[in-house]
């Protein structure tokens, strides 16, 4: 092996095809023309490298002694162990940066890591370009309507028949706190179940009595009060399970309730949903986790960054639009359900088509000069993009 090749190879491994390329850090990218928009299985950011295939490239071996190497700026194939002058042109040698310090560790479960020596990279004629956001000549714009986040919704229903004897929350819009009293209910069945529990002598019967009370909707805080008082409560209290606002109230003091009746609904507005209508032809560019920029005409100057939480599986036959759901943070409560919003969806990151490697039905690429192979999910392609 010649001197230059000896310095280019630091660890002997089986020969492989080196495809200098890039992985991208943005999720669900698209491919466009002379560029590919791709998504990767890994969140490492990198630089796109375009180069012809170089057969016989070897993975680099770690230096045994860590000695500094020197090279000629004009003749990078010349490598020396000490400072001096180039025997070809007489220029002073410069330190050779091998990049060993940030070489990724290789484990038994990780992908094989390759390193290409700088002099080999230079002789390859490698060109570099950065991965960048590309709109493929179009922007997916739409509008949406703010709705309640159904995951932050609590329905309070009755599991027994009885009468509301005390009502602490009296109107829609009242704020409630977790653990706060909502109302008290007199129900003969609850009184009987409490008596059965308090009169039971064995631990097994008491356990059954507690389970029966829980099955009837009695909360732990009310059960604790009954235990402390050691007598049945005629009016059983019911408490809020979470912070929120009363969104629906169907009872008043003295109301007779039936089993299964919806008594109240508590809604937390700490986050809201934005339901966006997207034309059928644009749905292919949007998937779960696609990022979007949201602005509200009712809140000038407020711009929110969000991502797609769910793409509904159906299309409206009349309007030919699909629905997309975004989750919007709303800690200050200023974004109100029913509000209108303008939405701009972002497309993925683009890389050169020549930066991808095809292996059967899958595609992959390499991150700069030192990397393990990364898998790609390819989207659309466009030949008119210029880098």
TrEMBL record:
Q: Which residues form the CusB-like beta-barrel domain?
A: 271-345
Please tell me one Gene Ontology term that the record gives under cellular component.
outer membrane-bounded periplasmic space
InterPro entries referenced in this protein's UniProt entry, alphabetically: Beta-barrel_RND_2 (IPR058792), BSH_CusB (IPR058790), HMBD (IPR045800), MFP_Cation_Efflux (IPR051909)
Residue ranges of every copy of the Heavy metal binding domain listed in the record: 69-95
Name the Pfam families for this protein. Answer: Beta-barrel_RND_2, BSH_CusB, HMBD
Q: Which GO terms describe its biological process?
A: copper ion export; plasma membrane copper ion transport
Keywords in UniProt for this one? Transport
Molecular-function GO terms, alphabetical? transition metal ion binding
Q: Which residues form the CusB-like barrel-sandwich hybrid domain?
A: 156-267
Protein family per UniProt: Belongs to the membrane fusion protein (MFP) (TC 8.A.1) family.
Task: State the protein's name.
Answer: Multidrug efflux pump subunit AcrA (Membrane-fusion protein)
What is the organism field in this record? Dichotomicrobium thermohalophilum
């Amino acid at each position: 092996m010649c001197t230059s090749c000896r310095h280019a190879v630091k660890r002997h491994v089986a020969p492989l095809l080196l495809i200098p390329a890039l992985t991208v850090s943005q999720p669900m990218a698209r491919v466009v023309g002379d560029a590919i928009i791709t998504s990767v299985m890994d969140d490492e950011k990198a630089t796109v490298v375009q180069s012809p295939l170089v057969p016989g490239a070897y993975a680099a071996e770690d230096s045994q002694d860590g000695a500094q190497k020197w090279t000629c700026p004009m003749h990078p194939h010349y490598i020396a162990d000490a400072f001096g002058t180039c025997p070809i042109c007489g220029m002073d040698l410069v330190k050779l940066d091998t990049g060993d310090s940030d070489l990724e560790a290789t484990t038994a479960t990780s992908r094989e890591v390759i390193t290409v020596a700088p002099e080999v990279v230079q002789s390859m004629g490698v060109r570099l370009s950065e991965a960048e956001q590309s709109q493929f000549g179009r922007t997916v714009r739409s509008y949406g309507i703010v709705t309640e986040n159904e995951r932050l919704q609590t329905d309070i229903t009755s599991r027994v028949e009885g009468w509301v004897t005390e009502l602490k929350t009296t109107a829609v819009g009242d704020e409630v706190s977790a653990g706060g009293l909502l109302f008290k209910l007199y129900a003969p069945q609850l009184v009987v179940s409490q008596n059965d529990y308090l009169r039971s002598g064995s631990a097994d019967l008491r356990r059954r009595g507690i389970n029966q009370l829980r099955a009837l909707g009695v909360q732990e805080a009310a059960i604790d009060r009954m235990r402390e008082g050691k007598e049945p409560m005629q009016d059983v209290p019911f408490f809020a399970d979470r912070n929120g606002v009363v969104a629906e109230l169907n009872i008043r003091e003295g109301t007779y309730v039936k089993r299964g009746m919806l008594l109240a609904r508590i809604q937390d507005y700490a986050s809201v949903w934005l339901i966006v209508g997207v034309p059928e032809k644009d749905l292919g560019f949007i998937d779960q986790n696609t990022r979007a920029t949201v602005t509200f005409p009712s809140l000038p100057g407020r711009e929110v960054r969000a991502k797609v939480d769910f793409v509904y599986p159906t299309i409206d036959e009349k309007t030919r639009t699909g629905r997309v759901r975004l989750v919007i943070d709303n800690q200050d409560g200023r974004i109100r359900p029913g509000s209108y919003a303008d939405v701009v969806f972002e497309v993925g990151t683009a890389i050169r088509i020549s930066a991808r490697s095809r292996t059967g039905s899958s595609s992959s690429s390499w991150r700069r000069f030192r990397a393990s192979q990364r898998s790609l999910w390819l989207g659309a392609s466009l030949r008119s993009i210029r880098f």
